[in-house]
Amino acid sequence: MTHTETLTRYVANFVDELVHTGLTDVVLSPGSRSTPLSMTFAEHEDVHHWIHVDERSAAFFALGIAKEQQRPVALVCTSGTAAANYYPAIVEAFYSRVPLIVLTADRPHELRNVGAPQAIDQIHMFGQYVKWFEEMALPESSEQMLRYVRSKAARAFHTALDHNAGPVHLNFPFRSPLIPDFTLDHLWGQRTERSFHYAYKGERKLQHEAVEEIKQRVEKHQKGLIVCGPQTDPGLPEAVTQLARYLQLPVLADPLSQVRAGQHEKDHVIEAYDAILKSPGVREQFVPDFIIRFGAMPVSKPYWLMLQDHPEIEQYVVESYEGFRDPSGNEASLILADGKQFCETWVNHLESSFFDVGWLKKWQEANQKAKAILTEVEGHNLSEGHVFTEILKSFSEKGTLFVGNSMPIRDLDTFMLTTPKSVRTMANRGANGIDGVVSSALGAAAHGEDVTLVLGDLSFFHDLNGLFAAKQFGLNLRIVVINNEGGGIFSFLPQAEHKDHFEPLFGTPLSLDFSKVIEMYGGSFTQVNSRNEFQELTSSLVETKGLSVIEVKTDREENATWHRQKWKQIEQALLEG
């Protein structure tokens, strides 16, 4: 058998098994050494291939698809620093538990460490940030090796998705010539009836006796909180709110918890808890005896400060699998069980506990006061916080809101009120970076989801290359760029007091005209200066196709002052109340 036939059958069996196991999307970046993988993926009619020339943006684009689809997405690149450009997205995928299958092409072993071009050490190059690494064997076409390559494909898919999802990395050494032959008979090889490693899966359940024990421990107290941090299980919001109603406890709902939006009951949901807890004096009035938490640690810093100040609070952290996400450093009981099943077991099989109803009412009244202050209409000026209020109003019955880090995610936390609309919230909160946000949002929009992205000017600038996907594939994305000429979040930190160094080191104003970039990528660009203009524009753009960018110009110092005034008003209302 010739080299070309061996190469073709080896790669074709690998690709076909990935597709057979459930892969639907692959993101390819151009390169020579990756030719066998790229051409074979493009040839397979049952996988959607996306081509992105910038590997860093390509990886975040794949991350966005995987977030929205909640299934593994494959990445393919050539050898050398092309693979290194995947690193930020792989780190984000690892910490945010997003499944990626990273396929890097490599030089064969005889061309490594001898000065050959485009040859770097790619063995375990992503270190601890992948769940599994495999250096693939050089292509062979024996029956044993075709079973081997199918086995690795199936294992890669299942490992990426299993337990806490995350990235896996397979490194493929290829010798020249690299062009596959798609005229071969039985090109895709021999599939088994099911995938090579078919997985039967079940829920991770906690026995009734264990839930009963937790119940007995917490019912010794009167003041409890249910907290739901960032999470993606669509069934958890209803289960959590049912548990809250059953126990008559408040639910502190992070904006990425999916609890603030949807058709489930929200009478116990406290969405303004971050604003309530801003004041140390108010915070002391809302210290619980115990907390039952679902999802990752909430975005809210005041919540974290409350935990820091009160290590005596009993914590019960529900995680579906291994992993501990609690940077407070306090003692906590880890509950390894499916969150939805845990709630349903408590509600359906245990007698109700009786906690202090006055505690619940206290939170609900504070929540109403805080919301009234946050939603006050103050003339025609458009604040950064009210950007979210208007965007959420403009949504139809459903859609996805993708949010950048730094100030946008914090303003979402403050200004996203409960709604019956099916609004799905997303952000790259694994590593909390500003890189790749545009690409991730476009990935989330790749399959036709109605997506609006809100981010700052620095995050936008950091991933302008990501806009290529919008033009290349004709994707629909509405982007709101909050342009405060730099790093707005630093205006809230102690660095702002050091005027001599603040602007060059932290403020970092860009002074760029983004309209030129949007024109280059075939999008529409509008700058707004008032709340009325923004209301009209966001409403009209809901059904608009293609790339639409709205720039909202704000002042960093005015924004910081406005936020502090709101927090002071809330503090006064709650202390006087």
UniProtKB/TrEMBL annotation:
Keywords: Magnesium, Manganese, Menaquinone biosynthesis, Metal-binding, Thiamine pyrophosphate, Transferase. One of its GO terms (molecular function) is 2-succinyl-5-enolpyruvyl-6-hydroxy-3-cyclohexene-1-carboxylic-acid synthase activity. Its cofactor is thiamine diphosphate; Mg(2+); Mn(2+). SUPFAM superfamilies: DHS-like NAD/FAD-binding domain (SSF52467), Thiamin diphosphate-binding fold (THDP-binding) (SSF52518). Residues 205-403 form the Menaquinone biosynthesis protein MenD middle domain. InterPro entries: DHS-like_NAD/FAD-binding_dom, MenaQ_synth_MenD, MenD_middle, THDP-binding, Thiamin_PyroP_enz_TPP-bd_dom, TPP_enzyme_TPP-bd. Pathway: Quinol/quinone metabolism; 1,4-dihydroxy-2-naphthoate biosynthesis; 1,4-dihydroxy-2-naphthoate from chorismate: step 2/7; Quinol/quinone metabolism; menaquinone biosynthesis. Binds 1 thiamine pyrophosphate per subunit. Pfam families: TPP_enzyme_C (PF02775), TPP_enzyme_M_2 (PF16582), TPP_enzyme_N (PF02776). It catalyses: isochorismate + 2-oxoglutarate + H(+) = 5-enolpyruvoyl-6-hydroxy-2-succinyl-cyclohex-3-ene-1-carboxylate + CO2. Its EC number is 2.2.1.9. Residues 14-125 form the Thiamine pyrophosphate enzyme N-terminal TPP-binding domain. Belongs to the TPP enzyme family. MenD subfamily. Homodimer. Catalyzes the thiamine diphosphate-dependent decarboxylation of 2-oxoglutarate and the subsequent addition of the resulting succinic semialdehyde-thiamine pyrophosphate anion to isochorismate to yield 2-succinyl-5-enolpyruvyl-6-hydroxy-3-cyclohexene-1-carboxylate (SEPHCHC). This is 2-succinyl-5-enolpyruvyl-6-hydroxy-3-cyclohexene-1-carboxylate synthase.
